[in-house]
Amino acid sequence: MSCVxxxxxxxxxxxxxxxxxxxxxxSCPSFNEMDIKPHQFVTxxxxxxxxxxxxxxxxxxxxxxxxxxxxxxxNVQPGKIIDAARQLLIRQRGQExxxxxxxxxxxxxxxxxxxxxxxxxxxxx
Length: 125
Fold this sequence. Notes:
Elements: H1 3-11, H2 23-26, H3 38-46, H4 50-55, H5 58-61, H6 67-71, H7 78-92, H8 103-106, H9 113-123
Helix pairs in contact: 1-7, 3-7
């Protein structure tokens, strides 16, 4: 399975719907920190240039705030594509994430529920 197919499977998004309007990038709070902007990120995925994404810092600068998802008129959801690409890069590097058995040992009463839900969303795929 190609990297693009894996990203599409993980994210559940069709990147070909993107019309490059740039609204996602305009709403991104990390815009100035990214060398590949959210709307450009989608283009890199479409062209199967995952190596360029792996060499950039954009996948790691995304805050996963999903402001880009709210602004997208075509429901491309670039934040989900960025998150899926980030997960794919981690898997390619051999870091599969946490197993379900390890998670309870990491928790305490001070752990925010938002953190747990975010981890669930990332590691259930």
